[in-house]
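Incident log, support desk, overnight shift.

02:14 A customer reports that sequence design results differ from what the structure should imply. Their input is reproduced verbatim below. On-call engineer (initials T.W.) acknowledged and began investigating.
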């Protein structure tokens, strides 16, 4: 019989595994990492935005977002345009190809998780929050910065592609998560 401690560790491992599997499904099925998809979705939501505004909106460092934007631009999913107000600045817009890719992309794991959490009573959400904050404290992780994205870990600007080559664009559009 497993101890309570073993059951807690197993539950944490299930959460980590779920995040990892979802991230792999995104990369293998759609050619995106979670942060890439979040940046593309936020670009569409904002319409036109600076890289700094996008970084703030997705809770990632500007360096990380810069790397993601470079990859999205190479795949012709976003367009950089000079700012009309400041020619030294650029603004980011989603391309028509980017919109098409988003239409066939799955939701982010945290979006579904937030929806499920919102169906809980307030006291249940507070209890979960308190418990998870305590778990983070027990793991000496309370001082680690973490964005509200369920991904395997922070992805640096130079490794946001998970060391995988970009799939051809025609393979990205219309793919189903398998």
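02:41 Re-run completed on a clean worker. Output:
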């Amino acid at each position: 019989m497993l101890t309570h401690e073993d059951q807690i560790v197993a539950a944490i491992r299930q959460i980590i595994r779920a995040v990892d599997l979802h991230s792999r499904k995104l990369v293998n099925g759609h050619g995106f990492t979670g942060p890439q998809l979040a940046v593309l979705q936020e670009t569409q939501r904002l319409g036109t935005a600076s890289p700094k505004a996008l970084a703030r909106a997705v809770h990632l460092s500007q360096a990380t977002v810069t790397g993601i934007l470079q990859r999205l631009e190479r795949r012709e999913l976003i367009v950089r345009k000079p700012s009309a107000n400041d020619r030294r600045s650029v603004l980011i817009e989603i391309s028509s190809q980017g919109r098409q890719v988003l239409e066939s992309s799955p939701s982010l794991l945290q979006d579904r998780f937030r929806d499920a959490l919102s169906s809980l009573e307030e006291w249940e959400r507070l209890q979960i929050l308190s418990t998870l904050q305590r778990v983070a404290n027990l793991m000496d992780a309370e001082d680690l910065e973490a964005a509200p994205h369920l991904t395997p870990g922070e992805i640096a600007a130079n490794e946001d592609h998970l060391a995988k080559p970009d799939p051809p664009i025609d393979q990205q559009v219309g793919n189903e998560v398998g």
